[in-house]
Amino acid sequence: MQDQKTIIWDWNGTLLDDVDICIRSMNHMLNARQLPVLDLNKYRQVFTFPVREYYEKIGFDFSLEPWDKAAIEFIELYLQSLPVCNLASGAAKILALFRAQGYHQAIISAMQHDALVKSVEDLGIASDLDYIGGIGDHYGAGKIDNARQFVSRFNLQSSKTTLIGDTLHDAEVAGELGCMCILVANGHQSKERLIQSGQPVVDCLDDLYGLFDFSV
Helix (H, G, I), strand (E, B), or coil: what is residue 88? Predict the structure, then answer.
């Protein structure tokens, strides 16, 4: 891949429209613990990586219950709802366009690997991708090491690589890789938070067309 331009995609909240099921799953858990529930605005203000910090921000007390128990409870609720999720608006079209323009494309995600691959395949876009990389567990700790391994394995040039995601953590990953970054503000964090990264921020995937020189 080293001589080709490469797009590294985040999955959750960027290509996959899963914000609603994340909020519903978490609110189920918050209700069970008699904690205040989240709406979309509040969720986008507090969601962060590592996700344990997000849990603590919204009221979980891990002196009263194990962190891993809460994490597994969430992922079980999330996976029950995952089949109803669709791709984000414009995702299939822009993946196909990047493919037609000769870009290599990969997904690097903090989602557990087997669940990630199944989700991608179920939504019919696996053929547009050269690589799909999730993590080894359900704890959502982050994906910097995963991204580094991908870049090293394929000897990617940072000047020809762009990471597209929806969180400040994606900007951190891009910084670690030394590659370009674009953040999309219709996912898991608010536009106001994303702007703080100093990276280009667009409102939706359709806005990406103006940032790349696509030949006709």
Answer: coil
